[in-house]
Design a protein that fits this description.
CATH architecture of the largest domain: 3-Layer(aba) Sandwich
CATH topology of the largest domain: Aminopeptidase
Distance between the termini: 29 Å
Number of domains: 2
CATH superfamily of the largest domain: Gcn5-related N-acetyltransferase (GNAT)
Helix content: 25-40%
CATH class of the largest domain: Alpha Beta
Radius of gyration: 21 Å
Shape: globular
Largest sheet: 14 strands, mixed
């Protein structure tokens, strides 16, 4: 049948776009469906403020009456202006192992971006690095976890056949939590904290205790993530909205904050892996999906690090070691056996070095591609 590419124009088309990956990943054992309530929020210009400073397009590939592919195009004007670039982006590209479909999808987005004056396409990359990014290129045997991509192994080949080459890779590491923390850890912590009298390590037992530190942590993110590829600064309004959105999902035991005279200067956030719960719920919270997810959170023995950082002028003072030791202590106390680092840019050698010091092992690689238009 003839292949056609059409933009998403109706709510029915948007539903097709959102749920299409279920077809592609029907027998994909390590794939985790998204939480669909979040998908509807993400693709809503009224609820997702990123649409206010971006041009976007959603395309579906059709063969007859059947959807056989999807892709989203983004032009993030805020990012392009800050970095003096003319980049278009593609994200949420899904199809079967079919070069014709892949070609039609990416060509449609390239033409759309070229018509708007863009000179290069990059991706997979969303509005910012807070969205899932890259195609996975290694480690397909491992379970997909929250905020990570879970594509089939053929996707990198399909995009490379369209002339795309590597821009940058992101690494994901696995760290084993020792059953009993070595006494050396406590000695290191005592030595570092003892010579830094003005620093205070904050740990939490309730979300109420944690609430006042979420927005200050996001402000610190704006400062320290500015040089990182793909990052877009958050507005105060976005910070407040993100805080409201994510606070209920956080386990306060896996949030560590360091303050200096009341100012947040470092933090790290982890969340128990709940992928098995999402898979059982098939991405739906209702009517009973939330029960599967809550059970998975409570039973999980795997922790995923989501976010963290240290204010530049406080680096190389051992704060990373302090937070790492406390996170390992909490993980051991609450039955966590392994920790996943989440995505680290291959160019971030200092963070990779810290992960390797505690026995981190590289398990997954993801690649962001580029092509001149």
């Amino acid at each position: 049948m003839e292949l056609t590419i059409r933009p998403v124009e109706t709510r029915r088309d948007l539903r097709r776009f959102i749920y299409f990956p279920e077809k592609v990943h029907k027998d994909h054992e390590t794939w985790m469906p998204p939480l669909y309530v979040d998908e509807w929020t993400f693709f809503s210009p009224k609820k997702n403020k990123s649409f206010q400073y971006s041009d976007t397009v959603l395309y579906l590939a059709w063969r007859g009456r059947e959807v056989v592919g999807r892709i989203m195009g983004i032009i993030n004007h805020r990012y392009n202006e800050i970095h003096n670039e003319k980049d278009g982006r593609f994200i949420f590209m899904e199809c079967f192992d079919d070069q014709e479909v892949a070609h039609a999808l990416i060509t449609a987005v390239e033409e759309w971006a070229r018509e708007r004056g863009m000179e290069r396409m990059v991706g997979p990359l969303g509005f910012s690095d807070k969205d899932p990014q890259g195609f996975q290129i290694e480690g397909f045997q491992y379970q997909t976890v929250v905020a990570m991509v879970g594509n089939h192994p053929y996707m990198p080949r399909l995009i490379e056949n369209e002339g795309y080459v590597k821009k940058v890779d992101l690494h994901d590491y696995l760290i084993k939590v020792p059953e009993v923390l070595p006494a050396l850890y406590q000695k290191v912590y005592d030595r570092i904290s003892g010579r830094q009298q003005s620093y205070e390590m904050l740990e939490f037992d309730t979300r109420k205790e944690l609430k006042d530190y979420i927005v200050p942590a996001f402000r610190l993110v704006n400062e320290i993530y500015a040089p990182i590829y793909g990052f877009v600064p958050m507005t105060e309004k976005e910070m407040v909205e993100l805080a409201k959105r994510y606070l209920p999902a956080l386990d306060p035991h896996f949030v560590k904050v360091v303050v200096d005279k009341g100012e947040v200067i470092a933090f790290v956030v982890g969340i128990p892996d709940f992928s098995e719960g999402v898979k059982k719920a098939r991405g739906h919270l209702l009517p009973f999906g939330f029960i599967h997810i809550l059970r998975a959170l409570k039973r999980s023995k795997h922790l995923v690090l989501l976010l963290g950082g240290i204010k530049p002028e406080y680096r190389n003072n051992g704060l990373d070691v302090m937070m790492g030791i406390k996170m390992l202590e909490s993980a051991s106390k609450h039955g966590i056996e392994t920790i996943e680092s989440h995505l680290i840019l291959e160019t971030n050698t200092s963070m990779i070095g810290e992960v390797l010091k505690v026995g981190g092992r590289l398990i997954k690689k993801f690649r962001i591609y580029q092509k001149q238009l």
